[in-house]
Amino acid sequence: MSLSILLVEDNPLNAELACALLEVDGHTVDHAPNADAFRARLGADKAPDIVLMDILLPDADGVSLLAELRARAHFAGVPAVAVTAQALAGETARFLAAGFDGVITKPIDTRTFAAEVARHAQDRR
User: Fold this and answer.
1) How many Cβ atoms from other residues are within 10 Å of residue 54's Cβ?
2) How far is CA 20 from CA 15, 77, 85, 121, 125, in A?
3) Hey, is 112 helix, strand or coil?
4) Residue 71 pLDDT more than 60?
């Protein structure tokens, strides 16, 4: 199943790796490198199948951006997964409590990343 993915990631190397892994698996990736670019995507007529959200962006945090995403009716059912280096157990629970559908820790596992993203997309739909 090919997915439409919105990747919110400020680090160019992380974004390049994630995009390459997802695209080689047949998915389409729209990369938003910052909060402003993410907000511009919220105005799109068609929502992606899943949103991958970095937690620490230079101009916003992923938790507050998640609230903006959930406030948009056409994004309401879209799964959102936190992608973060903040991998402590308490942090993961905090992200899930904030409304994320899952958490993927950095550094991402190149062998399982695309499958993990697809699983999160299917779990919510």
Assistant:
1) 26
2) 8, 26, 20, 18, 24
3) coil
4) yes
pLDDT-based confidence at residue 124 (cuts at 50, 70, 90): low
Name the pTM for this structure.
0.95
Cα(91)–Cα(121) distance, integer angstroms: 21
Average pLDDT of the chain is 93
> What is the structure's pLDDT at 86?
80
Q: Give yes or no for a contact between 118 and 81, defined as CB atoms under 8 angstroms apart.
A: no
- Rounded distance between C-alpha atoms, residue 58 and residue 34, angstroms: 7
| Cα–Cα distance measured from residue 5 to residue 53, given in angstroms and rounded to the nearest whole number | 11
Q: Class of 4-124 per CATH? A: alpha beta
H/E stretch holding 54 reads strand 50-54
Q: Is the dihedral of CA 27, 30, 32, 33 positive or negative?
A: positive
Structure tokens at 64: 């507050």
